[in-house]
Amino acid sequence: MLDDFMLRSALAGIGVALAAAPLGCFVVWRRMAYFGDATAHAAILGVALSLAFSMSIFIGTMAVALLMALTVSLLSGRGYAMDTLLGVLAHSALAFGLVAVSFLSGVRIDLMAYLFGDILAVSRGDLAVIWGGAGLVVALISWRWSALLTATLNEDLAHASGIDPKREQLVLTVALAITVAVAIKVVGVLLIAAMLIIPAAAARPLSRTPEGMAIAAGLIGMLSAIVGLRAAFVFDTPAGPTIVCVAAITFVGSGVIKSFSASG
Questions:
Q1: Does residue 157 contact residue 41 with C-beta atoms inside 8 Å?
Q2: Is 136 helix (H, G, I), strand (E, B) or coil?
Q3: Would you say 157 and 20 are in contact if contact means Cβ atoms under 8 Å apart?
Q4: Is 238 left (phi over 0), alpha (psi -120 to 50) or beta?
Q5: For residues 169 and 218, is the Cβ–Cβ distance under 8 A?
Q6: Averaged pLDDT of the chain
Q7: What single string gives the DSSP state of each residue in 128-186?
Q8: What are the CB-based long-range contacts (under 8 Å, 24+) for 152-155?
Q9: Is the separation of the CB atoms in 14 and 222 below 8 Å?
């Protein structure tokens, strides 16, 4: 059954959507969009290091994404505005990664596939990595859901409840690094942040509870992956960007529905 490349692609998109949905909700609630962007952009440097040292791209991208996320956490609040710091780190990491790739001699690399994804080339091994990583992210977020939610809503309340907000931030950081590592094959480093943010933002007007928003974001992400793949096949467009376009259209649609329900 997994010999069908379209089926493998659909399963890969669904796996990424499952990982990105709950994490994307926290990114939206905490207004961490630039944080996700910086972590994703660092992944291309991880690709270069992985190829240079002949190691797993999943391990390399996850390690560099985690290092970037930890660096941002450590440098925040030390005299730099957060948006400025994230902008500098995001674009610097991407630039250094692209330069590092150019130094790789004797290694053939499809840079466009890593920048914008190549979901149609997902293998059985890639599928196992994507679903393994997605399962790990979902398990991690589910395990810390209550504590993460409390720390997100109010840090003082979290302290009063015996919850360390910095520890919960670390949990999100690890989950984000894993998501970036599994999503790079599907949508590429330039579109990972979009798959984190857009389904969650689209689900927000349609949800009444945090749990409902996470479930709705997952459904929107999966629907975007399946419809986007079909649209890419029909119109002969790049699969990764087409998936993001479908998610963006869903976001606009959810806003229109919310406006009509509010006016009614």
A1: no
A2: helix
A3: no
A4: beta
A5: no
A6: 87
A7: HHHHHHHHHHHHHHHHTHHHHHHHHH-HHHHHHTT--HHHHHHHHHHHHHHHHHHHTTT
A8: 152/26, 152/29, 152/30
A9: yes
* pLDDT tens, position by position, 223-238: 999 999 999 989 999 9
Burial class (CB in 10 A: 0-12, 13-18, 19+), 96: middle
Residues counted in the chain:
264
Angle between helices 43-52 and 57-75 (to 10 degrees): 140
Which candidate, 82, 95, 83, 93, places its Cα nearest to that of 40?
93
Give 165-217 pLDDT, tens digit per residue.
888 888 888 898 889 888 888 888 888 889 999 999 999 998 989 999 999 99
Q: Each residue of 105-161: pLDDT tens digit?
A: 766 677 788 888 888 888 888 899 999 999 999 999 999 999 999 999 888 889 998
Contact 239, 229 (CB under 8 A): yes
**253 class by beta-carbon count within 10 Å (0-12 exposed, 13-18 middle, 19+ buried):** middle
Pair 48, 104: CB distance under 8 Å: yes
